[in-house]
């Protein structure tokens, strides 16, 4: 098959990367996508960096063997652990990662107070620390590791009392602190956006990096002349290290 008509690989530690996949499909409806979620080894965000790096490289190597024309690491945690190595290994296709959308959040207003929700690994990673330093003079950024939050999405619990209790406990210390924006720095969290909004209140702007990631992939595919020339709706293939999660992936794609 012509390279430009191969699928794009989209990888996450579980079902969360579907929040990026749905933006990819919206922006590039003619493209084929091959999604793999590694729910069997999730969460990645509470593991050691080396382990996440190994899992990510291994999973993507398996995906690449099937023939792909690009890679989207739809996981902030895996991006911080492995994107540099992936870019060294796959030089003839675009390799796009995702990082917490700090830039649009600090543009909100002068000296905005921005709460960044992410996995414990992401908030401690060097990549994130330097990203925060870049914007340090312009806004107050408050990183908050959220162990246990992605598990709600993995279990398909996008609302309900248990989630509400968890979020209230997690966010309570920030409710009276004049937070202007919340950045969702984990690809599982956009599926909890409504519940997070309810707890934070309607005046708080909630942002994530999925649309920016989709635009970046399109730019990179176009620059390498790899956009498909087929004129039919693209297909999405789902694979999961826990195959029973595939129906949840399909459901989340339509959310
Ligand atoms: N979805 C992943 C991210 O964006 C992390 C979830 C996990 O801890 O595995 O960081």
Automatic annotation (TrEMBL):
Top EC class of this enzyme: isomerase
Protein name in the entry: Glutamate racemase
InterPro entries (UniProt xref): Asp/Glu/hydantoin_racemase (IPR015942), Asp/Glu_race (IPR001920), Asp/Glu_racemase_AS_1 (IPR018187), Asp/Glu_racemase_AS_2 (IPR033134), Glu_race (IPR004391)
Record keyword Isomerase present: yes
Residues at the active site: 75, 186
Alphabetized GO MF terms: glutamate racemase activity
Catalytic reaction list: L-glutamate = D-glutamate
Keyword Cell wall biogenesis/degradation annotated: yes
Keyword terms, alphabetized: Cell shape, Cell wall biogenesis/degradation, Isomerase, Peptidoglycan synthesis
Alphabetical list of Gene3D superfamilies matching this protein: 3.40.50.1860
An annotated GO BP: regulation of cell shape
Species of origin: Candidatus Merdiplasma excrementigallinarum
UniProt similarity note: Belongs to the aspartate/glutamate racemases family.
Pathway: Cell wall biogenesis; peptidoglycan biosynthesis
Annotated function: Provides the (R)-glutamate required for cell wall biosynthesis.
PANTHER family: GLUTAMATE RACEMASE (PTHR21198:SF3)
Record: residues binding substrate: 12-13, 44-45, 76-77, 187-188
EC number: 5.1.1.3
Classification via Pfam families: Asp_Glu_race (PF01177)
């Amino acid at each position: 098959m012509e390279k430009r008509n191969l699928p794009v690989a989209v990888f996450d530690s579980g079902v969360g990367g579907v929040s990026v996949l749905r933006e990819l499909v919206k922006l590039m409806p003619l493209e084929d996508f091959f999604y793999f979620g590694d729910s069997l080894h999730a969460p990645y965000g509470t593991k050691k960096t080396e382990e996440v790096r190994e899992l990510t490289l291994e999973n993507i190597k398996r995906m690449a063997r099937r023939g792909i024309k690009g890679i989207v690491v739809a996981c902030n945690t895996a991006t911080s652990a492995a994107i540099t190595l992936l870019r060294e290994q796959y030089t003839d296709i675009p390799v796009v990662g995702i990082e917490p959308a700090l830039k649009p959040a600090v543009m909100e207003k002068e000296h905005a107070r921005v709460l960044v929700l992410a996995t414990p690994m992401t908030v401690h990673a060097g990549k994130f620390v330097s990203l925060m330093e870049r914007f340090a003079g312009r806004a107050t950024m408050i990183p908050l590791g959220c162990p246990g939050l992605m598990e709600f999405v993995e279990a398909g619990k996008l609302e309900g009392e248990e989630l509400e209790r968890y979020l209230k406990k997690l966010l309570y210390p920030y409710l009276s602190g004049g937070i202007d924006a919340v950045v969702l720095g984990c690809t599982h969290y956009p599926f909890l956006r409504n519940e997070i909004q309810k707890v934070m209140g309607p005046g708080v702007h909630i942002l994530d990096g999925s649309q920016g990631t989709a635009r970046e992939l399109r730019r990179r595919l176009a620059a390498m002349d790899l956009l498909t020339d087929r004129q039919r709706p693209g297909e999405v293939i789902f694979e999961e290290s826990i195959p029973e999660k595939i129906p949840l992936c399909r459901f989340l794609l339509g959310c």
